[in-house]
Specification:
Mean pLDDT: 76
Number of helices: 4
Order of helices and strands: HHEHEHEEE
CATH class of one domain: Alpha Beta
Oligomer: single chain
CATH architecture of one domain: 3-Layer(aba) Sandwich
CATH topology of one domain: Rossmann fold
Strand order of the largest sheet: 2-1-3-4-5
Largest sheet: 5 strands, mixed
Strand content: 25-35%
Number of strands: 5
Helix content: 25-40%
Shape: elongated
Structural class: alpha/beta
Length: about 210
Amino acid sequence: MNKIKKATILAAVSSILFSCAPTTSSKISYVNPETSAPMSLAIEYQDFERAAQKLINKLMNSPLMQHCGGPNGRCVFAVATIKNDTTQHIDMDQLMSDIKSALLQSGKAVISAAVSTTDKDEMLMELRKLRNNPEFNAKTAPGKGQLILPQYLLSGKIIQRVYRSGDKKKVDYYFILKVLDANTGLELWEGKEVIGKVGNKNDYSW
């Protein structure tokens, strides 16, 4: 192989390597959910995290949580699915994970895994049936056993509202949580957290 061919091959290889290497204009950094600006009008992870934490803080400071009679004085919750009433395809498991995490970290609540369904209405019916299940602790339900019957049912939904004015678009997301008495079905507490975003009228919100 002569010198000209070798030089040509080396130049080609170098060109390929440099074209694959990252350029100085492409900068990647970690995202801080507390300070990072939103990247779109859609719901993002920091929106989930912020809404979940604020709602649980409101719940923990409510009169409802001051008189729990469950294990070690903590309230026993069953958690239903959060209803998605927006135009977006949202990973609700992610939001549920944030809510459960904030609930448990409060130290004032525990979550029952004894109820199989996550639908609010079906869960209320199942909890009523469990009163006659002998596997549950006699202090929380008739019969024998050690399973703890949930005192409260946590459910909720996300609502989206879109407003347009001139060349701007505003999107509000309402994160709503409710606590029902598992025995009576009565609503005992409701909390709402609103996250609003403003962008160009052509920006997508899904």
